[in-house]
Batch of 2 targets.
Target 1
Amino acid sequence: MYLSWIIPTYNEERRIDKTLREVDEYLRSKNPDGGYEIMVVDSSSKDKTAEIVKNLQSTIQNLQLLTVENKGKGWAVREGMLKAEGSIRIFSDADNSTAPTYFDDMELLFKKGFDLIISSRNPKDVEGATRDIKEPFLREIMGSLGNILIQTFGVWGIWDTQNGFKALTAQAAEHIFTKTKMKGFSFDIEVLALARRLGYKIGIIPIRWRFDPDSKVTLSAYLKVFIDVFKIRWNLITGKYK
């Protein structure tokens, strides 16, 4: 199995060095002879993110930097997924709030025939899912409202659609991401909705999630996701994903 590990970034100079070293250490322990690629998809950062990644290429094997237009996280992940070469393709957030070692559990589900595997912080999805601490009050409230909306109009039966640690087979990745239209944070919901529509088998692993106070998810981002949920449902109804 050749693995592509995709990390979308935008102005991550404070975290990207630590994150890449953690991912590299994990992958080296599994595949000391290679068999993987690490792809940072940078949305034209205005800080030193790209410079840091370039400097690490001499010490981290198979590290690539792909610079794309700043159209949103969903756009960056899409570009990475379609340019990756792995038979399995995973994307994770630049803060490593989900530890890289959780991929071990995903690997077991791929061997059982799953096409898309997500990680969940919500015990309603899978036993053992949890978080180290609660998020700030506003994010908790917006997250709860979002869950109701997503359950009703987006992806019924999955409570944590937004955690940034998901993996797909190459076939599923190419089939789904050539159809996606959402360029921002709502792309996770769209990917799962399309996977359901296209008949892919979705698996869920439990994680213990680490909250990062530097998270870039704002109130306006939540509101944009809420609006996009209706757009995704409308696209499905009207056949826009053909």
Note: The beta strands are 3-9, 36-42, 63-67, 88-92, 116-120, 130-131, 165-169, 202-206, 208-209.
Target 2
Amino acid sequence: MRQYWWATQSDNYSRVGGTLWTNFFNSRGARRSSSAALARTKPGDIVFHCEKRFIRAVSEVVSEPAVVYRPKAYMEKRSGSDNDEGYLVLVDPLKTDLQIDRRTDIPFIESDGSGPLNINRGLKREGFFYPLPESSAGELLRMAGLEISELPKASADEYLEPFSGAGLTETDRIGLAKRRVEQRYLRSALLEDDATQCAMCHRGLPEDLLVAGHIKPRWACTEDERKDFTSAAMLICLIGCDSFYERGMIAVDDAGEVVRTSHSTTSELDSLLDSLTGNKCLRHDSRTAAHFRWHYDNAFME
């Protein structure tokens, strides 16, 4: 059964588009109620995103909750350790650029109950994620120009299973994530660090010619690596490097330099591979070195 949720995001709304995340515990060590609520989401649920005074967007949940460390976009407001653990959920927008005023436009949402508003119809401060009854959600959808009957229905056929063949653990619950949504999240997170530059060839390229390529398959990652899964990816170009890396024609050695296969190819391909050899990989560091080592040992054609 589809569920409906309210997400109070304040200034987070514009910074973390496409994701919902909260850590398990607050700065006092108490369990966050929003964490328990986020854990109950499932693909196909509908979320209303409130930024301060206005409901700005409606989105569909497109992943199961995954246990990950604090994503980079959420680093500005930190509590706990650098590796805060929490639930991450990916969402896909259905309607954006809304201006539904929570103060005047939504009298049908109760105050001081289990929902997001206090007795003065302000936003509650102790949480950010709340369930909404279907009747209230229906009214909000109508105001947004959407109808429940018109909403897309989540289909297992649209999803991928990135953990097939792996021993399942708590983080495997991200198994139902739309490929395009997860790719968008990973790519945007990497672009914050690397700008529009390929990690292998160093060419500055338009964003649509760069993808978030996995350094090491997620099914092969340890539990801690899955919780920090952006460290298992790099920006890599679609005009050669991604294909070369996927096919094991290039790899990154322990010094962080690009190496090429010794297998003979065409002279044109040899020339391309030679041009990459010796480049310093822009994503090789202490956090990613083990991932590159896995690829070198298991995928590289020496």
Note: The longest strand covers residues 85-95.
